[in-house]
Amino acid sequence: MSNSTTPMRHDSHLFWKALVLPALLILAWSAADAAGLANRDLFVSPMEVLTAGVNGVLDGSLSGATAATLLRALSGWLIGATAGLVFGVLLGTSGLARGLFNPTVNSLRQIALFAWIPLLSAWLGNGETMKITLIALGAFFPMALGAQAGCQNVPDGWREVGRVLELSRRDTLRSIVLPAAMPSIVAGAELSLNVAWLGTFGAEYLIGTGYINGMGDGLGAYLAAAREYARMDQVLLGVLFLGLIGVTLDRLVIGFSRRAIPWHRH
Predict the structure, then answer these.
(1) Sign of the dihedral through C-alpha 230, 231, 236, 242
(2) Domain ranges of the chain
(3) From 34, 123, 164, 179, which residue has the greatest number of CB atoms within 10 Å?
(4) Distance between CA atoms of 72 and 128, rounded to whole angstroms?
(5) What are phi and psi of 38, to 5 degrees?
């Protein structure tokens, strides 16, 4: 009982400690606003941001933008991470595949994600297909590299066990290689989700189209429209939402990894 509750207490303690800095920043922000030190053209009060959030939920602009962004981010991430996992396992288990694809993959992954936008726009236009493709591309490389590294770094002793047991290639992959590679795969999944989240915002902000009531097509477009209308309450609100959702997604991946690989320390 004590062993199971100790990690939970530790996590709870870390959670409350993590709230200290945000709370201090909000207090400083409120104090600066009350003292008239904040530039009203750049900063509004925390209460105005909170009011904008309540209004955004009630009129559907913020909740709709958030739902659109989450759906787009998770769709692109699932496509890119799945493809990256399969490709990474192939590279990590096949010397022939590494010889054929590694030089090209290593070259392509050096290209900044947003540098793909002009090319993808020319090929796919500026619609949903282009955005999902950009997000999936961002998620692909970290996942592929994590899976490849994990499969390549399986200890020789573990592989020897498979040979002694006369396991088939498929059984060796399923029973030995993939379990040993799981820490690297989970790390690749976490990084790929982070990149996909950044890619989602970039796609929406830079090529957002189809505004709904001026504030529609995802949080990136919400921020772009708020900037155009000089609504600093909505700009700050959008930034806060992006950060909170990003942290939440990251914590979900960490929670999943603790259950998928309980023997690995995080």
Answers:
(1) negative
(2) 66-260
(3) 179
(4) 8
(5) -85, 140
| Nearest Cα residue to 238 out of 253, 225, 252 | 225
Spatial distance between the Cα atoms of 45 and 29, rounded to a whole number of angstroms: 7
Q: Which of 125, 127, 141 is nearest to 77 (CA)?
A: 141
- Supply φ then ψ for residue 39, to 5 degrees: -75, 115
Rounded Cα distance, 155 and 162, in Å = 12
Cα distance between residue 79 and residue 149, in whole Å = 20
> Based on the number of CB atoms within 10 Å of its own CB, is 103 exposed (0-12), middle (13-18) or buried (19 or more)?
exposed
Rounded to the nearest 10 degrees, the angle between the axes of helix 128-152 and helix 178-207 is 160
In this structure, are residues 134 and 76 in contact, taking their beta carbons and an 8 Å threshold?
A: yes
Q: What digits encode the pLDDT tens for the residues 101-154? A: 999 999 999 999 989 988 998 899 888 899 999 999 999 999 999 999 999 988
Q: Under a CB-based contact definition with an 8 Å cutoff, are residues 97 and 251 in contact?
A: no
CB 70 within 8 A of CB 245: yes
| pLDDT of amino acid 12 | 57
**Do 161 and 193 touch, CB atoms closer than 8 A?**
no
CATH code for residues 66-260? 1.10.3720.10
What's the rounded Cα separation, in Å, for the pair 227 and 173?
A: 51
Residue 222, CB half-sphere, CA atoms under 13 Å: how many? 29
Query: What DSSP state is assigned to residue 40?
Result: T
